[in-house]
Fold:
Amino acid sequence: MTYLSAPANSKEALYLDARQWLEYYSSTHAEMSPMTLEAFLPAGRKEMYYHQYRADCVRMSRKAGSLQVFLMAWRTECSWLLVCRSVSKFTKCGVCEYLKMMLDQCPRELTEVSEKLRARLGRHFQFQGAQRIAMARLEEIANQSDGRIWAMLIDKMDQNCAFCPQVWAMLSTALFKGGERLMCAINGSIWAGTRRASKHHLRTMFQDCQHGSEMQCSTFLLNVWETAMKEGHLCEELIIHTDNTAKETKNNIMMHMLIWLLCVLPAETPLKSILLGFLIVGHTHNKVDRMFSRFKVAVSGHDFFTPEEMIKTVMAGMPGWDISHSHLTRVWAWKGLDTLKITPFVGFRLVHCMNIVRKPTGIWVRWKQYLTCETWSKPVLVVSPDMVRLIAAWRPARVPQRFKQEPLANMQSWMDKFEVALTDGSRELNERRTDLHRLRNIIKQENPAYTTGPSVDEIITDLSSLRGVGEKRVAEAPMPEDQLVTFFSGSDIPPLPVDSLIRLPKAPAMPGRNSVPDVMGPGSMLIVSADHCPTKVGGTTLLFSVAVVVEDVRDGDELLVSWYVPGFVPEASMKSGPKKKVVDLFGEWTKYEQLSNDAANKVDLSPVLIVGKAVLLYNFIFADRVIPYAVHDQLRNRHGIDVTALSVSLTHHGNLYRAAVLLSGS
Structure:
């Protein structure tokens, strides 16, 4: 949606203009509620948003409606657009809070100062909205990549939000308030660009491992492995959007783990690039957080005893969501990568986008300050080819996953009390005995579904066996512009040489520029008749030859020349299947002396001494070793050499010239 309506003058038009601006502004700056159809703007006064609207009108040289008209349009037409009463539900930014505090402390009589503060706050919101749009654009690129690019948004829900078991009618009792139940943290991810794997994934994890960078790195590796096995191939580029927190993801442990992944995969593996993106601190709420909000709504008011039952409750409460589930069964010690002396990265706080690329020359890294920036840093080599082999041989040790003794004893004691509380007949203990037994096994870590998982070597073997998605499928008979324009002059006109678009036959000659010398001498470019000096390339006799004068022979009408030879290109026809190689008179020509032995053996040239009468044209400009369109025109019009015939012009550059002739009528 864009804010580009015609200038408004009447009150009704200004009313509609204000409504349009509110809808446009909410699409980029408001947070859509995952539970209702409401949208929330960051905390502030509506007058502040009015000043932002007025500033946009001034910038676009438009008349702005009054505050009364603006508020009426908001109240009547955009009642779904709300302003948070205090701190925004989804953002807490130091800049936002500071500017709002300055606005609250600004005296009312200093209207100019307050308006500048509001305008500054509006620019801040606009900048944050641009980061989200850039992130959404990367997701859309992944969705349209035919499986070549995957994007993963990953985040961890508050670990205090999910406990097992949950009996809604007993949550207010002392047993549930004071006891220690099984805490179930949720790591959620949303995928873009995949075709078979579920778009939404929930990974449960317990307090049997330390939550931090190693947990996040292990979760990431398991996510990629599971997704790749479901897809049946690996992507060429992986985009990761994570929370902007130095404790878990934005640190050297995560960067070194990603570098290790690119090193450990074989050179022929399609995955060659990993892009890390971060939103700005205070404005990191994204689609994964909205999924977590729906998760809380789905389990609210429902009873469940085990993590599996909790996930089934979530899926039943979110029927329109494609959700898969797994458990974090393995955590590896990624901090051990420090022993390999990989180059550390300093200054993470200033960077919000990093790109790790594997090339034959090693692992390269580049970065830019924000997702919206167009300028990347110069690529830096962080791992040399010799170091790649050393890193690939390294394997992380597995971190033992077990509950600490005191929490384990507390959970088992709580389970005993809970089972006693269920002995009341109304609690239907007999129907829940199986669930209680399963939950006890999970706490004792005797349930294989929560303790067994793949090893690092198994993951590497599986990923290494996968190949790319394959060549993108196209129509059997492609129809590029240079071929279509031959049949339909109204089709997309392909790019043509600019100097050939318009001809000025009566333009005065400009000395030194478009005047042609009348004398042939060393350095003069020649078009030579095939009747006098035939040239064969790959068995094909050329319509003309191209040469450059090396020296005049004073004793007679002869010139010593050096020959040029055209190249071979695939035939540019609409036929399906492999294309044969044909001579391209309209592409680059190469000196015979510069040809390889194999190419020279396919050429049959005339002697290097030629007579003057064999020259058709001379002293033309041979820029980039390509014959200009004007020379081809003279060959057609003056010498009757039809270079537009399909037998000699069925190449990409030949199609372009033939299209230029047909469209110009020359």
In short: The chain has three domains: 11-131, 145-465, 481-664. The longest strand covers residues 558-570. Residues 49 and 122 are 8 Å apart (CA to CA).
